[in-house]
Amino acid sequence: MTIEPSSTTPKSSSVYTRFVGHQGVMVGAFIVLSIFVLALFAPILAPHDPYNQDLLARLIPPVWDSRGSWEHIFGTDHLGRDYLSRLIYGARISLLIGFGAAIISGLIGTIMGVMAGYFGGRVDMVVTFLITVRLSMPVVLVALAVVAIVGGSLQVVVMVLGLLLWDRFAVVMRTSTLQIRSMDYVAASQAVGCSTPRILMTEIMPNVVNNLIVIATLEMAHAIILEAALSFLGLGVQPPLPSWGLMVSEGKDMMLFEPWLITIPGVALFLLVLAINLMGDGVRDITAPENRN
User: How many domains does the chain fold into?
Assistant: First the structure.
């Protein structure tokens, strides 16, 4: 009699192999992890105080310019603040807003979508109506109006974006739940008397989590871009906080003479958003039901 080996190790190895072998996930994870480490250890890695002003050292170009200096590798801004230090601390702002907005909107949209898809009927009608109302309101215009009335700050931006970006979560979770609730295993759980919370947590959520991950990464990247846009317009994160969008806004008046003032934070935004999207798409490919062993 032969004993069959446990399937746990091969399955775990297969998932690990798919993660390592997916170039998008690896590239995105490397960039996001690098930015996260910079943000986490900003007080140690930043060469200067990002808030310290020195008007005698204003607008020093980056080190690759002939006028640059290794004391300020990325140069200084119009107030003489070290640009590399502000860029490193700005990563904290972008990641905090991205994660915060994604968590708030994800909780709201997931609860609404799963409830609508599972219960249907009047619950579905109410949620669908709320989604329609939300989709009729332009995110940027509403965010601008609310921030202009309430006042721009880090906390306000996170809350406003979190309360405005839940619609995609709700739509995707509703559609996924509608498909899953008709499956045999859900019907079997209902037949044996499992409670509704247990069915939702053990049968519905594990099968929609891959879609949830993708939407979360998309909305995280969306929130980072929206924060940069609001800060660029002067209604987001307020000075002297080193937001990347605010850095672009402060350098726009000198973009023809000192283009690095907007190029450096712009490239940082591009890399972060690209890496988050690469991670989301890759995780979706790896965790998709058709790719599981």
Answer: 1
d(CA 73, CA 47): 9
d(CA 258, CA 100): 33
What CATH number is given to the structural domain containing 146? 1.10.3720.10
Task: Kindly state whether residue 273 falls inside one of the protein's structural domains.
Answer: yes
Domain, as residue range, for 36: 21-49+62-291
Residue 5 lies in a domain: no
In order along its 293 residues, the chain shows pLDDT tens digits of 344 444 444 444 566 676 676 777 888 889 999 999 999 999 999 998 999 988 888 888 898 888 888 888 998 988 889 999 999 999 999 899 999 999 999 999 999 999 999 898 899 999 999 999 998 888 888 888 888 888 778 888 899 999 999 999 999 999 989 888 888 888 888 888 888 888 888 888 888 888 888 889 889 989 999 888 888 887 888 888 888 888 888 888 888 888 889 999 999 999 999 999 888 877 777 766 555 55
SS3 category, 61: coil
Q: How many CA atoms lie within 13 A of 27 on its CB side?
A: 11
User: CA–CA separation, 35 vs 33, rounded Å?
Assistant: 5
Residue 131 covered by a domain: yes
> Rounded to a whole number, what is the largest CA-CA distance in the chain?
84
For residue 113, being part of any structural domain is answered with yes
